[in-house]
Design goal:
globular; UDP-N-acetylmuramoyl-L-alanine:D-glutamate ligase; 9-stranded mixed beta sheet; 325 residues
């Protein structure tokens, strides 16, 4: 465990660029005590509203919570949500110079209404069309200008249009040429985009969709079949997250490691994948083996699912979990 702590101590020196679908998470907190006379729905008396970076921006937020330097790259729209999101990122000392305004797309928002620690409703504002060639070029030019000064790139793909096939091909080639890792939190419909990435981190449902295996196949043997198929198809190491069952790591050297969960209680899985990909990437760029990095990411995920809403993990929490694990 001491070796894992030494790795975590290096997180603060890492510089990670995050490319993906940037979102604003809005939380409306309130109480419920009656049913509406207008329709059979609950009436929420609003007590407060809060905001947090969501989607790919939550990956950058997780990196910042580990005291590392993060560079956010993607698009936002115009309007109030734009300003709120940029301010939320700046408050966390996340570099926003790689965020470009796309007048054809709104700032993606996820509005969650929560009462008595229960999520009652979510409202989404989004468009899923791919960014145009002009935005693609701006993104690639920005990354090209930053690549020598960063340790790795995380691709946080929510399939909302920022991650395109052409952009991924050019990004992967650039990172290979510069000797930089590419860590991908994937979406099944973009499977072919991720070929030759350093590692991908699908959850078990995404792994099912990416391999064509039936959803009910969740034994270790079935997970191994999926992991090995993804590794072969994409020429990438694979970390499949399995919720309360932990994680399974598949390495190019054919090593397979099943890691049990470290979660004590599960309140909310929102953003858990963002925590996994952030902590995994930081560990790998801090000298961890794939197995060590997966163990660290598993601890981080176990902490974040014990919190309500889009949440992050800090260094002290992570060290404590490992020391007590």
């Amino acid at each position: 465990m001491n070796s894992l702590i030494k790795i975590i101590d290096k997180f603060k020196d890492r510089k990670i660029l995050v490319l993906g679908d940037i979102m604003l998470d809005k939380y409306i907190w309130g109480d419920v005590s009656r049913i509406s006379p207008e329709a059979p729905v609950q009436v929420v008396n609003v007590l407060k509203e809060t905001y947090a970076p969501g989607g790919a921006a939550n990956v950058a937020n997780n990196l910042a919570s580990f005291n590392s330097k993060s560079f956010m790259v993607g698009t936002i729209g115009k309007g109030d949500a734009n300003n709120i999101l940029i301010n939320e990122l700046k408050k966390r000392k996340i570099d926003v110079n790689g965020i470009f305004i796309d007048s054809n797309r709104p700032t993606i928002q996820k509005v969650r209404i929560i009462a008595r620690s229960q999520q009652l409703l979510r409202v989404d504002y989004e468009k899923k069309n791919y960014v145009d060639a002009n935005i693609e070029n701006k993104i690639l030019n920005f990354i090209s200008g930053k690549i020598n000064g960063i340790d790795a790139v995380i691709v946080s793909d929510y399939a909302k249009g920022v991650v395109t096939k052409q952009l991924m091909e050019k990004l992967t080639a650039l990172c290979k040429n510069k000797g930089k890792m590419v860590v991908v939190d994937p979406k099944p419909q973009h499977k072919k985009f991720y070929k030759n990435a350093t590692i991908i981190t699908p959850n078990h449902s995404e792994a099912h969709q990416m391999t064509g295996f039936a959803e009910e196949e969740i034994s270790d043997r079935d997970i191994e079949r999926m992991g090995k198929k993804l590794l072969k198809d994409l020429n990438s190491n694979v970390l499949i997250t399995k919720g309360e069952k932990g994680m399974s790591l598949f390495e190019k050297n054919m090593a397979v490691t099943h890691i049990p969960t470290f979660a004590k209680e599960v309140y909310d899985v929102t953003g858990a994948g963002d925590t996994v990909v952030a902590s995994l990437c930081l560990a790998l760029t801090s000298g961890a083996s794939f197995k060590q990095a997966a163990i660290i990411a598993n601890h981080a995920a176990g902490i974040t699912v014990g919190k309500i809403g889009t949440s992050t993990v800090n260094i002290d929490e992570l060290k404590k979990s490992i020391e007590n694990g």
